[in-house]
Amino acid sequence: xxxxxxxxxxxxxxxxxxxxxxxxxxxxxxxxxxxxxxxxxxxxxxxxxxxxxxxxxxxxxxxxxxxxxxxxxxxxxxxxxxxxxxxxxxxxxxxxxxxxxxxxxxxxxxxxxxxxxxxxxxxxxxxxxxxxxxxxxxxxxxxxxxxxxxxxxxxxxxxxxxxxxxxxxxxxxxxxxxxxxxxxxxxxxxxxxxxxxxxxxxxxxxxxxxxxxxxxxxxxxxxxxxx
Length: 227
Fold this sequence. Notes:
By secondary structure, the protein is α/β, with parallel strands linked by helices. The protein has helices spanning 40-45, 48-57, 66-76, 91-94, 125-133, 160-172; strands at residues 83-85, 102-104, 107-114, 122-123, 147-151, 176-179, 201-204.
């Protein structure tokens, strides 16, 4: 399981760091609140802030990190059951991790669709990228509605692939590695508790995350051995 922390060394900011995170640097957009940039209601009303941000984040400007290649190495050695990522940057794909092994729990820039549910026409990543690069608002070539990369916004359901695979994957897991995530967003975060009780769980993070919230949920850190 991975979050934005595995991509920060590529130059992509994480979301929640107090001074350097994405949410802390959105003042220029005059948003009603930071998370509005990923809220469907606000996007329909004012898509420009999201598309401006998307121009900076679009795949092709950043390269995979050592961590991404470590995950690819696990796959190459036959040790990777699945890689669940909160990231939308597609760096796992650029590192060569096969689509079959990736679950992009919060979607990604890889595909895009018309937001009108009656239409939902798919548009290519390159077509959307060109529109955004030219400062245009991507609109459906079929019905004229907004076109949005298939990133999961607040108020949207996670991709079906997440729900289809998670039960078997976590039940079959013999080592859970959690990297670069604050574990604050559901339903992604609670998956750390879906492995069997005897399965080791390894957290690789700058700060503690997913700390015990009740006797049966979360990580239980040995405080005596934390510096």
